[in-house]
Amino acid sequence: MDSVLIVNADDFGLSKGQNYGIVDACRHGIVTSTTALVNGAEIEHAAQLSRSLPELAVGMHFVLTLGQPLSPMPSLTRDGLLGKWIWEMAEADALPLEEIARELDCQYHRFVDLFGYEPTHLDSHHHVHMIPQIFPIVAAYAKAKGVALRVDRGLAALHQLDTDGIRSSDGFASEFYGDAISEALFLQTLDNSIARGERSLEVMCHPAFVDNTIMGSAYCYPRLAELEVLTSASLKQAVSAKGYRPGTYRDV
């Protein structure tokens, strides 16, 4: 039996260049799924594009480290903005968990308002949902809504997180990232998953065309390299030869 391969492009809604890159990687490549930042500057543009591409499954990219929140978060924001200081607060066990739970609910309902349906799954910007204090909140919310959740099994084991009852892929790969993007790197992530005996795998990616927003990102030109690899005909053939079929979180 074939294994399910979910190729999920993060950051849908970040910018028009990001949005167009994800759409191109779905239309002409192997991307099957994306996750939307509902507080992103171009989220309405992303929602509009998705209406002409029903084969692209759309989940929600929970955001606690970028831009403005949708609800009052006085304990987590600085000058009204979210940021990467969330890890310092987590280390100090000072996270405002009630504010985070409320923001998750606000972002979820904003997603439904924008896209007209519930997300296929939840994950998060900078993997904040895998922070030990936050994971139980997001996991319980996903269960209550009946949607799948991205689970990094390695981090879950490291932090002894309770993953019982969560619908997710068997495996999650974040290795297709950085300055050494190549077809060989993508295929190595599949080989690693095959070696672990996983029957479903999500590979995270960030394909994009470079625009002013992406130029200001710490992760810029590799997004172009990802787009080139993910739309190559040889990669699609190699993935199929390894026994994978394209899928989404609806398949797990």
Automatic annotation (TrEMBL):
Report the GO terms under cellular component.
cytoplasm
Gene3D superfamilies attached to this UniProt entry: Glycoside hydrolase/deacetylase
* Reactions this protein catalyses: diacetylchitobiose-6'-phosphate + H2O = N'-monoacetylchitobiose-6'-phosphate + acetate; N,N'-diacetylchitobiose + H2O = N-acetyl-beta-D-glucosaminyl-(1->4)-D-glucosamine + acetate
Biological source species: Trabulsiella odontotermitis
Q: List the molecular function annotations (GO) for this entry.
A: chitin disaccharide deacetylase activity; deacetylase activity; metal ion binding
Function in brief: Involved in the degradation of chitin. ChbG is essential for growth on the acetylated chitooligosaccharides chitobiose and chitotriose but is dispensable for growth on cellobiose and chitosan dimer, the deacetylated form of chitobiose. Deacetylation of chitobiose-6-P and chitotriose-6-P is necessary for both the activation of the chb promoter by the regulatory protein ChbR and the hydrolysis of phosphorylated beta-glucosides by the phospho-beta-glucosidase ChbF.
Family matches, as NCBIfam families: PRK02134.1
| HAMAP family registered for this protein in UniProt | COD
* Entry's localization field: Cytoplasm
Question: Mainly resides where?
Answer: cytoplasm
One Pfam family it belongs to? YdjC
Q: GO:BP terms for this protein?
A: chitin catabolic process; diacetylchitobiose catabolic process; polysaccharide catabolic process
Query: What superkingdom does the record give?
Result: Bacteria
Pathway as given in its UniProt record: Glycan degradation; chitin degradation
Q: Which InterPro entries match?
A: COD_ChbG_bac, Glyco_hydro/deAcase_b/a-brl, YdjC-like
Enumerate the residues binding Mg(2+).
Answer: 61, 125
The EC number(s) given in the record are 3.5.1.105
**Cofactor(s) needed:** Mg(2+)
Give the UniProt keywords, A-Z: Carbohydrate metabolism, Chitin degradation, Cytoplasm, Hydrolase, Magnesium, Metal-binding, Polysaccharide degradation
State the family it belongs to.
Belongs to the YdjC deacetylase family. ChbG subfamily.
Designated name of the protein: Chitooligosaccharide deacetylase
What CDD domains has UniProt attached to this entry?
YdjC_EF3048_like (cd10803)
Q: Could you describe the subunit structure of this protein?
A: Homodimer.
